[in-house]
Amino acid sequence: MEKMSRVTTALGSNAISGKTMFCHLDAPANAISVCRDATQVVVAGRNIFKIYALEEEQFVEKLNLRVGRKPSLNFSCADVMWHQMEENLLATAATNGAVVTWNLGKPSRNKQDQLFTEHKRTVNKVCFHPTEVYMLLSGSQDGFMKCFDLRKKESVSTFSGQSESVRDVQFSMKDYFTFAASFENGNVQLWDIRRPDRYERMFTAHTGPVFCCDWHPDDRGWLATGGRDKMVKVWDMTTNRAKEIYCVQTIASVARVKWRPERKFHLATCSMMVDHNIYVWDIRRPFIPFATFEEHKDVTTGIVWRHQHDPHFLLSGSKDSTLYQHMFKDATRPVDKANPEGLCFGLLGDLAFAAKESLITSDANRKPYPGGDRRYPMFFFKKPDPTEQFAHVSSALSVFETDLDSHRMDWFVKTAQLYLLSGKPFAELCDHNAKVAQELKRPQVSTTWTMLRIMFSDPANLATPGPNHNLGKLGTLPLMNSFSLKDLGSGMGAESRLERSKGESRQDNIHLEPGNSYISNNEENEETEGSEGHPEYMFGDAELDDDDLYSMEHDNQTEEQEYTLPQEAFQLRHEIVDNPSAPEHLQQDKADSPHVSGNEAEVTCLTPIESFSLISISQPLFSPHLPASFFCPIVREMLSYYAEQGDVQMAVSVLIVLGDRIRKEIDDLTQEHWYMSYIDLLQRFELWNVSNEVIKLSTCSAITCLNQTSTTLHINCSNCKRPMSNKGWICDRCHQCASVCAVCHHVVKGLFVWCQGCSHGGHLEHMMNWLKSSAHCPAGCGHLCEYT
C-alpha cells in the first residue's frame, strides 16, 4: 500500500502530460506493457524487444533487449508484462514455450534473469500477481497454466484446464488467491492458486474461442471477456452462477479488452483481424462505440492505459510497426456522425421505423393511416443520468404491420423443406423442384426449373426416339422452320408464301454433316405406326431433288390413292427455282449408302399423321448441340433478377443444383452474400436442418466454415465427475456408462441432453418433462439444473 500511495501522490503532483504521437518500430509488435510510473513502455514481438521512454513530444528508445549475434527464440515474444510492484522486473511469453524473466537492474547487456521451459507449446500469456512480487502465472497452447515462484527454478503448481489451449490468464485485482483463465473452447474458468487440482467455477462465455479477459479495477466481481464471436461480455462473478450483465456486439473478433481507469462503465477493445481501429465502449450503450481511435493501418495487437489512475492516455502497438500514444480528447466520436433514424423489417414483413421526435411531430401534412392516426405511435423517455456523457435525443417508433393473409411466408418454409438440392441426378432435381413450385402456385419459379433442366441436361438423354424408327434412315436434318398448312391464313396468297419460302431457302454456304444435326418433332404430332390420318411430307434439299419427288409420287399412286395432296403445296415447291442442289458429297453418300433406298424413303415420308407439315431447310443459325456454357449468361442474369427481387432462396437453390455449371460465372462475394442472406432467413424461421444442409453444400470457404467452428464438446463423467478423455461413452476412470438417463435409468440411444453444471442428463423428453415441475437435478445431487 505504501508503494501504491506513492504512485498516486506522484500522479497528483506531477500530472501526466503529452499529446497524440507515434514512432516507427523495427518490426511488428505483438504486445506492449507500461511501467508503474507511466514513464516507459516495453514493446515485444517476434523480432523486436525494446523499451521506449514516454516524453512529452515523442518516444525515445532507451534499451534494446535483443542482444547477441544470433538471438535465440527466447527473444521471440508472444506477450510481455511489466511488474507493477518491482520496476526492474519484466516477464515475456516466448513462442517456443519458454517463460523468461528480465532484470533491468543487471549491469550486463544481457538482462535475462530466469528461464522456465516447462511448457510444451507456445505460451500465450504471462501475468504477475498484483501484490506478490515473486508470483508469476502463465497460460500456454498446451492447455496448462503454471504458477512460478521467481525465487525457485521451477514452477510450484500446474493447473490443467482440460481444454485445447489457454488464451489468457488474469489475477483478480481484489481476491488475493483467484485468477481467471479463458480457453479456445469458449469456456472461462476461475481457479484458486491454493487448489491446483480442480477449478472453482467454469462457465461457457462465448460460442467460440475466448481470446481475452480482464478484471474490473474497481468493481470486485466484474469480469470482461472477448471472443471470436465478435462479442464483449461482462460477467458478475459475485453470484452463485456467472451472470451476464452487459454484452457489446463488435464487428470483428475481439483480441484485447482493457477496462478504462476511473470510468466504471468504459472499456477498450481491439480486433484480431479485419478491423484496425481501437474502440472505447460504454457498456450501457453497446450498439455504438463511445470513442474510436483510427490511426493504425494494420491490426492492433496490444493496448494498455498509460496509468491505472489516468483515463486520458491510451498506448497501442500494431502489426503496422508503429507505437501510438492516443489522447482521449483527439478520439473520434461515432455518435456525432450516427444516423438518428432506424429501420428494420420483421420476420413476417412488419416494418419498424424510429426517428427523432422533432422529425415526426413537424410532419403535419401526414395523412392518417387506416384504422387510426399513427403519427405518434410510441415514445420512449428515459430519466436523465448526470453521470452519463450521452447526447439525449427523444425518439418516436412507428410500427407498420402487414396483412398476414397477403404476406404470409408459408411458401418460403414449405419450399425450403421440400426442395431437393442434392442426392439425385440433375434432371430429377429440377423436375422435383419444379413440381414443388407448381404445387405452391409459383408458376414462374416452376417454369424456371423446367427451363434449367432443358438447358443443362445432356441432349442424348433428352432425345426420345419416335415410334416410327424409319426416320433415322433418312440421315439427320437441321430443322429450322416447321409449320402446319392448316395454320396458314386463307388470305395468304401463293406469291407471298413463295417470297417467304425463297427468303428462308436461300443459302450461300451450307455444310451439312451427318450426325451433327437432328430432327425434332412435337410430341403432339407423334403417332404410333399404322395410325390413320393425313400424310406428312418432308421436303429437304439434302435428301430429295425434284426428280425424286416425282418418282415418289408416281410409285405410290397405286398403293395410297386415298391420300391426295393439296395442289397448293406442289405449286409452292415447283416455283422455287433458285434453290441450289444438295452438295455433291451428300448426293454421293446418298447414292452409295446401302441403308437408304427409295422405297424406305417413300415409306418414311408418307407415314400418316394428323396434319400436314411443311419443313423448309435453311442454313442453321446456331449449332443444334448448344453447349451448356451458351446459357450461362442468361442464367446469371436470371439469378441476379431473383436475388434483386428478394428471392434469395431461388438464387441459392439454383446455385447449389447447377454447381460447377454456373458457379464460375458469379463472383465469390456475390455468392457469399446470397448464401448469408438465405441462411439468415432459414435460421430466423428456425429451419436449422435446412440451414445446415445449405452450409454443407456450399463451396464458399466463408460459408462452409460456419458449421465447422466450436464443434468440440468437453464433458464430464456423471458418476465420478472427471473429464472424459476417450471418444466413447464409457468413462476410462470409473468404467461406468456416462449416458445413463437420470430419470428412467436406461442407456440413452439417441438425443442426449446433460447439465454442464453437474454433468447429469438423460433423454431429451424425460429431462424436459422433469424440469417443468422441478428445478433440482433428477439424479438427486441437489444441483439446480436449467433447460433453455
UniProtKB/TrEMBL annotation:
Enzyme Commission number: 2.3.2.27
InterPro entries, alphabetized: WD40/YVTN_repeat-like_dom_sf, WD40_repeat_CS, WD40_repeat_dom_sf, WD40_rpt, WDR24
Metabolic or biological pathway, per its Swiss-Prot or TrEMBL entry: Protein modification; protein ubiquitination
Cited Gene3D superfamilies: YVTN repeat-like/Quinoprotein amine dehydrogenase
Stretch list, region Disordered: 490-541
Coiled coil region boundaries: none
Subcellular location: Lysosome membrane
WD repeat locations: 116-158, 203-245
A GO cellular component entry from the record: cytosol
Predominant subcellular localization, coarse grouping: membrane
Main enzyme class: transferase
One of the record's GO molecular function terms: ubiquitin protein ligase activity
Domain of life, per lineage: Eukaryota
Entry keyword set: Autophagy, Lysosome, Membrane, Metal-binding, Repeat, Transferase, Ubl conjugation pathway, WD repeat, Zinc, Zinc-finger
Pfam families (UniProt xref): WD40
Function (record text): Catalytic component of the GATOR2 complex, a multiprotein complex that acts as an activator of the amino acid-sensing branch of the mTORC1 signaling pathway. The GATOR2 complex indirectly activates mTORC1 through the inhibition of the GATOR1 subcomplex. GATOR2 probably acts as an E3 ubiquitin-protein ligase toward GATOR1. In the presence of abundant amino acids, the GATOR2 complex mediates ubiquitination of the NPRL2 core component of the GATOR1 complex, leading to GATOR1 inactivation. In the absence of amino acids, GATOR2 is inhibited, activating the GATOR1 complex.
Record-given protein name: GATOR2 complex protein WDR24
Organism ancestry: Eukaryota, Metazoa, Chordata, Craniata, Vertebrata
